[in-house]
């Protein structure tokens, strides 16, 4: 059996500890995502989805608990090693695309690849391939402001996949789009995830989209339960 791509054990996270506005967001939250699995995380606003995704993606650390990516426990690792794992193994998609406005669609997909050591030629070829897969070859030289919301989000998916991560983390990836565009963009995301065989954890308020994933988890008082 191969290791889970993502394993979270008994995560606890409290903000503003000791202050009057202290809030414990995660209480012994745990989950396992296996290779090729697409898991939906459904929970109301403010229940801790983004906090959990940030911890899973090594952007934040829990107060207690364990995070393992592809079987490697990241808890005691140096910042440098954690950054390397994040860069190589994790792709993020957010509700708002966060593309760099001064760069073209292709450049936005090329930039993260330089950090991973790819040459300009390799990065450009990969960007062109990804843009073709989401039907945006003819928009490669456009800046984000020259693209529609759905197109921007498709570019953001390509950027997340630029370094061929084993884990995709998405926070309301279509939450900013109208329902028809959201459906189309979501299909594209699922197609890419299935094709590459990566694992994905996708937070969404949209129950119809969640129902199309392999499994649904709900956040219940800071823990994750099968939905
Ligand atoms: N850095 C922080 N400092 C203090 N409180 C925070 C911080 N980040 C989040 N919180 C609080 O923790 C709770 C959970 O926030 P989080 O963003 O994880 O929720 P969410 O489920 O992703 O919400 P949404 O669906 O609205 O994005 C909220 O009450 C929020 O105000």
What this model shows, in words?
The protein is α/β, with parallel strands linked by helices and 227 residues long. It has a single domain, classed as 3-Layer(aba) Sandwich (Rossmann fold), CATH 3.40.50. 35% of the residues lie in helices and 26% in strands. The protein contains 7 helices and 10 strands. Strand 1 and strand 2 (23-33) form a beta hairpin. The longest helix has 18 residues, at 179-196. It is globular and about 50 Å long. The two termini are 25 Å apart. The mean pLDDT is 92. It binds adenosine-5'-triphosphate. Residues 15-16, 23, 25, 43, 45-51 line the site of adenosine-5'-triphosphate. Adenosine-5'-triphosphate binds next to strand 2 and helix 1.
Outline the biggest β-sheet: 6 strands, mixed
Distance between the termini: 25 Å
Query: So, the CATH homologous superfamily?
Result: P-loop containing nucleotide triphosphate hydrolases
Q: Structurally, how many domains make up the residues? A: 1
CATH architectural designation: 3-Layer(aba) Sandwich
Mean pLDDT: 92
Shape: globular
> Could you state the order of secondary-structure elements as H and E?
EEEHEEHEHHHEHEHEE
Q: What is the gyration radius calculated from CA atoms?
A: 17 Å
Distinct small molecules? adenosine-5'-triphosphate
Query: In order across it, which strands form the biggest sheet?
Result: 6-7-8-3-9-10
Structural class: alpha/beta
The CATH topology annotation reads as Rossmann fold
């Amino acid at each position: 059996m191969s290791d889970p791509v993502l394993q979270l054990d008994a995560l606890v996270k409290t903000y503003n500890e000791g202050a009057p506005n202290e809030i414990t967001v995660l209480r012994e939250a745990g989950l396992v995502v296996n290779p090729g699995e697409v898991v939906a995380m459904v929970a109301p606003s403010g229940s801790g989805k983004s906090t959990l995704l940030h911890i899973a993606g090594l952007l934040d650390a829990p107060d207690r608990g364990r995070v393992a990516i592809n079987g490697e426990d990241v808890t005691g690792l140096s910042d440098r090693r954690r950054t390397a794992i994040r860069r190589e193994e994790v792709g993020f998609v957010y509700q708002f695309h966060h593309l760099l406005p001064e760069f073209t669609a292709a450049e936005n997909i090329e930039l993260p690849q330089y950090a991973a050591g790819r040459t300009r030629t390799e990065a450009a070829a990969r960007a062109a391939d990804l843009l073709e897969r989401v039907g945006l070859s003819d928009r490669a030289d456009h800046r984000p402001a020259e693209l529609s919301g759905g197109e921007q989000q498709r570019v953001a998916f390509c950027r997340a996949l630029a370094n061929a991560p084993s884990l995709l983390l998405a926070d309301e990836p279509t939450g900013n789009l109208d329902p028809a565009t959201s459906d189309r963009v979501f299909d594209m995301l699922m197609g890419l995830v299935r094709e590459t065989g990566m694992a994905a954890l996708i937070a969404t308020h949209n129950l119809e989209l969640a129902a199309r994933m392999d499994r649904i988890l709900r956040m219940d008082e800071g823990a994750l339960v099968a939905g």
